Amino acid sequence: DGGITQSPKYLFRKEGQNVTLSCEQNLNHDAMYWYRQDPGQGLRLIYYSQIVNDFQKGDIAEGYSVSREKKESFPLTVTSAQKNPTAFYLCASSSGAGELFFGEGSRLTVL
Amino acid sequence: GENVEQHPSTLSVQEGDSAVIKCTYSDSASNYFPWYKQELGKGPQLIIDIRSNVGEKKDQRIAVTLNKTAKHFSLHITETQPEDSAVYFCAATPRDDKIIFGKGTRLHILP
User: Fold this and answer.
1) What is the pLDDT of residues B29-54, one digit of tens each?
2) In angstroms, rounded to a whole number, what is the distance separating the alpha carbons of residues B111 and B100?
């Protein structure tokens, strides 16, 4: 089936460690996005990519990094510079016609 | 700046009654207004959308209305059912690569 796969679903990290969240899509979409979701805060854009080998910062990019080496993949690294990384992370893709297709999310907890 | 306000943040309605969620946006260039439903522990899914060239759109028990002059749009759910319990997000797109989400409404359907 076509869709977006995020992994892992749950992730625990010690302070000072970098972690990478995976996002893969087989929808042949050009655009991919990473959002962070905190209770009562809605969806905040971290990074987005409109095309392979290119990406732009969103509203809360500090402490995060991404790469877009393949059309299907858009991994997000949460670095030790992110001061409050505990959150629910959502990846999405779009064909450009408007609708976003979201993955099931990854919940990161810093111990 | 670009902003989407969503109200209420929490809504409880009796099963069978109607629910209304309202959003206002700030950028008059916005021309696409999707609504997403997020069930617990999952990613949001598009349930209905409307473009700026129409004032109302309906899909079974769900309808969306748009008032471009006042810059507000609303989601209406009639004959609510237990499976309608979820978090709902409105969004506006001031340009093709920019989607701004409201902070969400948690809808509880009471038995």
Assistant:
1) 899 999 999 999 899 999 999 998 88
2) 33
Q: For A79, what's the count of Cα atoms within 13 Å in the CB-facing half-sphere?
A: 8
DSSP characters for B32-100?
EEEEEEE-TTS--EEEEEEETT-SEEEETTEEEEEETTTTEEEEEE-S--GGG-EEEEEEEEEETTEEE
B99 touches chain A (CB under 8 A): yes
Structure tokens at B68: 């471009």
Nearest to B104 among A42, A90, A96 (CB): A42
Cα B107 to chain center, whole Å?
A: 11
CB A9 within 8 A of CB A90: no
Spell out, as residue ranges, where chain B has pLDDT lower than 70.
Answer: 1
**Residue A73: predicted pLDDT:** 98
CB A26 within 8 A of CB A3: yes
Q: Which residues of A touch B36 (CB under 8 A)?
A: 100, 102
Average pLDDT over residues A8-23: 93
Touching check for B3 and chain A: CB below 8 Å? Answer: no
Is the bond leading into A8 cis (omega within 30 degrees of zero)?
yes
